[in-house]
Design brief:
The complex is a heterodimer. By secondary structure, chain A is of the alpha/beta class. Chain A is built from ten helices and ten strands. The radius of gyration of chain A is 18 Å and the shape is globular. In chain B, the strands form two sheets. Chain B has a five-stranded parallel beta sheet with strand order 6-7-8-3-9. Chain B is globular and about 50 Å long. The chains are: A alpha/beta, B alpha/beta. Bound molecules: adenosine-5'-diphosphate (2 copies) and magnesium ion (2 copies).
Chain lengths: 258, 239
């Protein structure tokens, strides 16, 4: 267990005009940790995730990330180009809607290979081998490597999006409702797969979801958000089995047992 | 000075532990589940929790595992040789204690990932960097010991009978030789043969030096494993 956090977030606030997106959020993510962010729709989860992952500038606060070579940097102080480089190399970003994270006009193989080319890979044979490796890892039939994502089912598209993210071996993966919009049985399979990969690759993750079953299975720790603020934080099973805040008690009691 | 810091045979020391549930949806009703709990457990001891239903036995075990959040008191766990406070510890510290020091055996499997039984049982060993072939052979032997039929090992336990699931759960929880084990009715709803197989595992864990705290619904089980009894009363007077 190294003692240097991967991500340190301090008093992070994002407003949309006068409306609050998220307010005064602070937490520390340690290497290998999976952090779940839960709360009802509109509670500010996506806003927070986007501020953490370089997609949306915060109104106030700091997001400090431990780079491999330059120590900790505030991701909103570095240049846009450096931020984009982080997103292509060190980080993965899995969108709820796979089409947002995929290029629909190129083949499955190219979707995965493209990210490698963006970090300088040039040997076609090696790129293809890596792409096939990650399609296998995500249980996408390698016989379909030349098909376009349009031809894939929702679950398969989501697995393709994850393969595209993992090919550069990121250390930190952000996921926004990764199982949202999928059939229950497809969700279960995807969750098993994510759970296995996260542990095999020792990934650090921030997973946003409104589904407490997802975090029960995947997350080490939780933040519970309500109206833009974190109202409760702690070890996943403790927060779910012995919630302290009235809002968390309401969330936990309004779902079927998980 | 705490006793645990003086005496290396003490594995867990609990002082003045209190746990109250506040039910916000029910007008803030307070349930005083535990008050003023003091106990210690040493290597090779199995302390059995006694008391009527609702006395707070399961609540106490869950506080000791970091699953419930106590309001007051101290829970010192000997983790990697050092007395370590559980209350207020960071999630990653609690998870480290659970990985290496604290085992929990409950009656029910929860949030079972759809992972084949054999892999599920191997997981706690693999997360401790036990080599894969050793993890596998130990898992095979504990599944055999608990009479989990071999044709089930490649399947996820979701479709198993209650008793089969419980035995997989026990195999997973007892595969690693945790220095401290918490047991919440591990033998409930097992038939005689399987109950004995489980009690056998518990007794041998105790005899190798594990410190244990357990809840057992039947007298026979208690007699087979207990070295001491701690009784919780059902009435908790206000201070
Ligand atoms: N682009 C935007 N412009 C204005 N308000 C927004 C925008 N995005 C989100 N919001 C508002 O910010 C709040 C948090 O939204 P969001 O972060 O999407 O929550 P969640 O992901 O938990 O559903 C909501 O009140 C939402 O209406
Ligand atoms: N998660 C919880 N939320 C609210 N109350 C609880 C919770 N868990 C236990 N309790 C209450 O605490 C008291 C003690 O319960 P428990 O520890 O299960 O007793 P025992 O195991 O001795 O039968 C009971 O009144 C029970 O309803
Ligand atoms: Mg959202
Ligand atoms: Mg009980």
């Amino acid at each position: 267990m190294t003692e240097i956090p991967l991500l340190e977030v301090e008093s992070l606030t994002r407003r949309y005009g006068r409306r609050i997106g998220c307010q005064d959020v602070a937490f520390t993510l340690w290497p290998g940790e999976v952090l779940g962010i839960v709360g009802e729709s509109g509670s500010g989860k996506t806003t927070l995730l986007n501020c953490l992952s370089g997609q949306l500038p915060p109104s106030e606060g700091r997001v400090s990330y431990l780079t491999r070579d330059r120590g900790a940097v505030d991701i909103w102080e570095i240049s846009e180009a450096q931020r984009r480089l982080l997103l292509r190399t060190d980080w993965g970003l899995v969108h709820q809607t796979p089409s947002e994270g995929l290029r629909m006009g190129v083949s499955a193989g190219a979707n995965v290979g493209e990210r490698l080319m963006a970090v300088g890979a040039r040997n076609y044979g090696e790129i293809r081998t890596e792409a096939l490796h990650w399609l296998d890892a995500l249980e996408v039939d390698r016989g379909r490597v030349d098909e376009f994502p349009d031809a894939f089912s929702g679950g398969m598209r989501q697995r393709l999006q994850i393969a595209r993210n993992l090919v550069t071996r990121p250390r930190l993966v952000f996921m926004d409702e990764p199982t949202g919009g999928l059939d229950v049985s497809v969700q279960a399979r995807l969750l098993d797969l994510i759970r296995r990969l996260v542990s095999e690759l020792s990934l650090s993750c921030v997973i946003v979801t409104h589904d407490l079953g997802v975090v029960r299975l995947l997350a080490h720790r939780l933040l519970v958000m309500r109206q833009g603020e974190v109202v409760e934080a702690g070890l996943t099973d403790q927060v779910l089995d012995d919630p302290q805040h009235p809002y968390t008690q309401m969330l936990v009691s309004s779902i079927l047992p998980v | 000075m705490t006793a645990i810091s003086q005496d290396p045979s003490i594995m867990m020391e609990v002082k003045d532990l209190a746990k109250t549930f506040t039910l916000h949806a029910q007008g803030g009703t307070e349930i005083r589940a535990l008050r003023g709990i003091d106990l210690e457990v040493r290597k090779g001891e199995c302390l059995v929790l006694a008391g009527p239903s609702g006395a707070g036995k399961s609540t106490l075990l869950r506080c000791l595992y970091g699953n419930y959040l106590p309001q007051a008191g101290s829970i010192l766990i000997r983790h990697e040789g050092e007395p370590t406070e559980m209350i207020g510890a960071e999630p990653r510290s609690i998870l480290a204690m659970r990985r290496r020091t604290l085992g929990f055996v409950s009656q029910f499997l929860r949030a079972i990932p759809r992972v084949p039984t054999l892999e599920l049982v191997m997981e706690p060993l693999l997360s401790q960097t036990v080599p894969k072939d050793e993890a596998e052979s130990r898992s095979v032997s504990i599944l055999r010991h608990l009479n989990v039929p071999e044709h089930l090992w490649g399947l996820a336990p979701a479709t198993f009978s209650g008793g089969e699931q419980q035995r997989v759960n026990i195999a997973r929880a007892m595969i690693f030789e945790y220095p401290i084990m918490l047991l919440d009715e591990p033998t409930a709803s097992l038939d005689q043969e399987n109950r004995e197989a489980v009690l056998d595992l518990i007794a041998s864990a105790r005899d190798r030096g594990a410190a244990m705290i357990g809840i057992f619904h039947d007298q026979g089980a208690r007699e087979a494993v207990a070295t001491g009894v701690f009784t919780l009363s059902s009435r908790k007077e206000a201070a």
